[in-house]
Amino acid sequence: IYREKVLPLLGGSSYLDDSPFRERVAEIVDARLLAAVAREHAKGRRLLVVTANLDAQRGTVWDMGAIASSGQPAALKLFRDVVIASASPPGLFSPTYIEVEGNGRRFREMHVDGAIADPVFSPAEVLALLRVRVARPSDIGRTLYVIVNNRIAPQFEYVRSSMIPIVARSFSTLSKRNLVAEIDRAHRVAGENAIEFNLTFIDDRLAPKAPAESFDLGYRRQLYAHGRQRVLAGGAWLKAPPAPSH
C-alpha cells in the first residue's frame, strides 16, 4: 500500500508514497459499496469514522451512511477521502484535504489518522445522550467493545541517537499515554451509563519483537495467530483496564 520515496525528506508532506493505498481504496470503495452502506443506513445501522482535523486540532466524526445516502455527486469522493484520511498516519502518509463550507465560504481542511485526536472512539457518550432523549425498553442491553491494535504496557526499546528514531519514539510514547487515558475514560463513562465494558489488546504473551517495518507480513500473521489462540482459550476480553505499569 505504499512505496519508498527516493528523497523522502526533501519537501513534500509525507515520508512514504501512499499512492498505492489511495488506488486500492478507489478500487474497493465504488458505487456498489456506497449503495450497500446507504441501504444499511436506511435500516437504522450507523457507520461512523473518525479523522483528525489538524487545522482545528480536533477529531471529526463522519456519518458514512449519511454521506452514502446523500445523493450528492461528490459523495463517493468524500467517502473515499474520509476512509483514506482515517488510516493515514501523519508524516508517513500524505494528509487528505477535504473541502468544506462554513460562514459563507469554502475552504480545505487537512485531515489525518483519527487516532491522533481520538485514540479510542467510544460510542458510550453517544449512547448516554440517546438514553436521555429516547425511551428504550429496560431489557435491551448495551455493550462496548474496545479493540486496541497495540500494546498498552510500556515496552523497553533501545533508541538510536538520531533525529528520526528520537522523534518516532517520542511520538509513540505520547500516543501510548493518550491511548491509556482514553481507555480509562471510556471505561468510566460506560460504568456511569450502565454499558457493559470489554477491552482487548496485544498482551505480553506475544513476543515483544517489533516488526521489521510498518506492514511486515510475518508479524501480522503472528499477531493474527496470537489473537485467535487467545479467543479459543477464553479470557480474551477484560472487563476493566489493567493496572498501570511503572
Structural class of the secondary structure composition? Answer: alpha+beta
Specify Rg, calculated over alpha carbons: 20 Å
Q: How many helix segments?
A: 7
| Tertiary shape | globular
Query: Strand order across the biggest sheet?
Result: 4-3-6-5
Strand content: 15-25%
Helix content: 25-40%
CA-to-CA gap between the ends? Answer: 37 Å
How many strands in all?
8
N-to-C series of helices and strands: EEHHEEHHEEHEHEH
- Low-pLDDT regions: none
| Whole-number mean pLDDT | 81
What does the main sheet amount to? Answer: 4 strands, antiparallel
Overview of the structural elements:
The chain is an alpha+beta fold and 246 residues long. It is built from seven helices and eight strands. The strands form three sheets. It has a four-stranded antiparallel β-sheet. Strands 1-2 form a two-stranded antiparallel sheet. The model has no long low-confidence stretch (mean pLDDT 81).
Features:
246 residues; alpha+beta; 4-stranded antiparallel sheet; 8 strands; 39% helix
Helix and strand arrangement:
Blueprint (H helix, E strand, L loop, with lengths): L2 E2 L11 E2 L1 H10 L2 H12 L5 E6 L4 E6 H6 L5 H12 L9 E7 L2 E9 L10 H10 L9 E5 L15 H30 L3 E5 L16 H17 L13
Parallel strand pairs: 7-8
Antiparallel strand pairs: 1-2, 3-4, 3-6, 5-6
Write a short abstract of this structure.
The chain has 246 residues and is of the alpha+beta class. The protein has seven helices and eight strands, in the order ββααββααββαβαβα.
